[in-house]
Every structure is written in structure tokens, then in C-alpha cells.
Design brief:
Blueprint: H1 2-17, H2 27-47, H3 55-66, H4 77-111, H5 124-138, H6 147-167, E1 168-169, E2 172-173, H7 175-198, H8 203-213, H9 226-241, H10 243-251, H11 253-258, H12 263-285, H13 291-302, H14 307-331, H15 340-360
Antiparallel strand pairs: 1-2
Helix pairs in contact: 1-10, 2-4, 2-14, 4-9, 4-12, 4-13, 4-14, 5-6, 5-7, 5-8, 5-12, 6-7, 6-12, 9-12, 13-14, 13-15, 14-15
Length: 361
């Protein structure tokens, strides 16, 4: 019994040495505030648009759809259609993508022990881009309306497999080889996607491909929400289940191996999990940068680096952030729409530079 107690303390020791947040509001309160923030962002995302809706009417429509007895229908059928079939699926997809990118970013930063790591690190996004651009440029319709998401997901998986085998040597995979293979693969695939766009003879297809490469959620329907939602929910649950090993990765490979963790096998499995999540996300949204890079840093400033506490907070903050970014993307120059990837880059870039200066001081 004494040996078991000592082993348990040893496993928890690296987590105890992780940087803790500054004294302030307790964790349940911070989590509650993030839930409220997400609710406010979702309400604003559904209410705002070319036809503005009062927030109480939005909640009334949602309550009436849950059960007719919860709210009296005093709105027109057109407004209910706008809420349920146009704006709600888009807001939910924003929340799913923001949460998924943020969680993947936090996991990757722990796995490679690099604060600059983000979901675009492994070349998965570039592989998805090649698949999607091929469908747009060549007009492939093998899977009907799902041709673009399926091709993007296939490209993401192909890039993952290529990077995985390039990074393995002697049956092992190191962080340095993985990052180098991912960066090289991303550059090659980005060049391929650019070549396809430049050589296209149809300007409309070229414009569609470029808009997809910049990231966007226009035309979201309920059919495209479920696959990324399932991937993000299951993937986040798995990452929460291995939150202690993720803490050990932050303590260093040697310390993790000394405590009995199979570093190489677990890292390979988690890389595959993260890549599948990213592939499912990028297949429906295009490339959206900086969300997975910035949100983990913000959460660590508020809560600390313990993944048992940080992963749920990161998911909530990332979901709220992308909903707000998409709201600006579709209302700033209405009726035109800005690709949401441009908004996240304009916000994330300066914030990351400020964060670097703050940490250096």
C-alpha cells in the first residue's frame, strides 16, 4: 500500500510542477463565466444578420422547437426558418470548429513541447486543401453534395499517413522529425494547391477555391454539422482521459518514460487522433488559422497548464471566439461576407505578438 501511494504521488508530481494560474477566481466560477460567454456569443450569432432578431425571440423560437408549451409562437414562420435552418446550424458549426481547433492546439503544444505548435503543424490542413481544391477546380461530383468534404478529409488522411511514415525511423518517431516532416509536407501540398488554382481556366472556380482556402462557413446546413461534431466530442473525451500523460509530456520525455509511460506509442496514437479531428474540421470549414495557437495560451494564463482543467476551458473559449469572429465576418461589409480565416488572422496575429512581448518581460 505504501508503494502504491508513493507511485501515485510520483505520477502527480509533474502536474504539480506545472505553471499554476495566478490567485484569482476559483476554477468553477471561471468555467461558469466561459459558459455564459459562449451563450451570449451564440445568442448574438443567431440574432444578428440582414434580418435582426431580438434575443428574447431567438430563445423563444428555440424553446418552442424543444416543446411547444415552453413558448407561445408570436413570430412569423420565416423568422423561425431563419433561426432553425440558417443561423443555428452555422453557429453550432462555429462552436464545434472553434472548440476542436483549440483542443487540438493545446494537445499538440504538449506533445511536441512547443508553444508555437498549432493544428496546421502536421500538414493535415494542406492535404485537405489539395483535396478540396481538386474537387472545385476539376468539378468532381462523385459523392454529390458531399464531394468536397469527402475529398478534403481524404487529403487530410493521406497527408497524415505520409508525414507519419516520413517521421518514423527505426520504428521510432521523434518530435523533431515529425515537425520537420509536417512542415515540408505542408509546403509541398500548399504549392500543389496553388498550382491547381493558378492553372485553372475558370475564374469562378478559382475564386471559390481561394475562398475555401481562406476558411469560411457560408452555406452551412445541418447535414455538415454532425460529422465534425462527433469527431470533436469523441476526440476531446479521449484527450481528457489522457490528461495526466499530457501533463507528463510537458515535464519532458525522460521524466515521462521514467514513470512508465510509453512515450513513442502514446504520442503516435495521439497524433493520429488529433489529425483525424483536424481533418474532419478542415473538410467543412477550410483553413482557419490562429484559433488553435492563441486560445491555449489565453487559458493557461487564466487557469494554468493542467490539462484536466485547461481542456474544457479551452474548448469553451475557442467555441465562443470563433462564433464572434464569424459574426464579424458576415456583418462587417454586409451583404458581402469576409472569409472567417481573415478575421482570426487579423485578431490572432497582433495578440500573439503582444503575448510574446509580455512573456519576454
Amino acid at each position: 500500500m505504501k508503494e502504491l501511494t508513493e507511485d501515485a504521488r510520483a505520477v502527480d508530481a509533474p502536474a504539480a510542477r506545472l505553471p499554476s494560474r495566478r490567485p484569482g477566481a476559483p476554477y468553477p466560477l471561471l468555467l461558469g463565466l466561459l459558459v455564459v460567454l459562449l451563450g451570449v456569443a451564440a445568442t448574438a450569432g443567431i440574432a444578428a444578420g440582414s434580418i435582426a432578431l431580438p434575443p428574447e425571440q431567438v430563445w423563444g423560437i428555440l424553446a418552442h422547437r424543444i416543446h411547444p408549451a415552453l413558448a407561445e409562437p408570436v413570430w412569423s414562420p420565416v423568422r423561425e426558418t431563419i433561426v432553425m435552418d440558417v443561423r443555428l446550424p452555422r453557429v453550432l458549426l462555429c462552436a464545434v470548429i472553434g472548440a476542436g481547433l483549440s483542443v487540438c492546439g493545446m494537445a499538440l503544444q504538449a506533445l511536441v513541447r512547443n508553444p508555437l505548435a498549432d493544428p496546421m503543424l502536421l500538414g493535415v490542413s494542406s492535404g485537405a486543401t489539395v483535396g478540396a481544391v481538386s474537387v472545385v477546380v476539376f468539378g468532381l461530383t462523385l459523392f454529390g453534395a458531399f464531394s468536397l468534404p469527402v475529398a478534403a478529409f481524404a487529403g487530410a488522411l493521406a497527408a497524415l499517413v505520409a508525414v507519419y511514415f516520413l517521421a518514423r525511423s527505426g520504428g521510432r518517431m521523434t518530435t523533431v522529425r515529425l515537425v520537420l516532416a509536417g512542415v515540408a509536407m505542408a509546403e509541398v501540398l500548399s504549392a500543389v494547391a496553388g498550382f491547381l488554382v493558378v492553372t485553372s481556366s475558370d475564374p469562378h472556380k478559382t475564386q471559390s477555391a481561394l475562398r475555401w482556402m481562406l476558411g469560411g462557413l457560408a452555406g452551412t446546413t445541418w447535414q455538415v454539422v454532425w460529422v465534425p461534431a462527433a469527431a470533436v466530442l469523441l476526440g476531446t473525451a479521449v484527450l481528457l482521459g489522457v490528461s495526466r500523460p499530457l501533463n507528463l509530456f510537458l515535464a519532458g520525455e525522460e521524466a515521462a518514460a521514467a514513470l512508465g509511460l510509453d512515450v513513442h506509442r502514446l504520442r503516435a496514437a495521439l497524433f493520429v487522433l488529433v489529425a483525424v479531428m483536424i481533418g474532419a474540421i478542415v473538410a467543412v470549414s477550410g483553413s482557419i488559422g490562429f484559433v488553435g495557437l492563441i486560445m491555449p495560451h489565453v487559458v493557461r494564463l487564466l487557469i494554468g497548464a493542467d490539462h484536466r482543467r485547461a481542456l474544457p476551458a479551452t474548448a469553451l473559449l475557442g467555441a465562443a471566439f470563433l462564433i464572434v469572429a464569424d459574426l464579424f465576418a458576415r456583418t462587417l461589409i454586409s451583404p458581402e461576407e469576409i472569409p472567417v480565416g481573415i478575421i482570426t488572422a487579423l485578431v490572432g496575429g497582433p495578440f500573439f505578438l503582444w503575448l510574446m512581448r509580455r512573456r519576454s518581460r
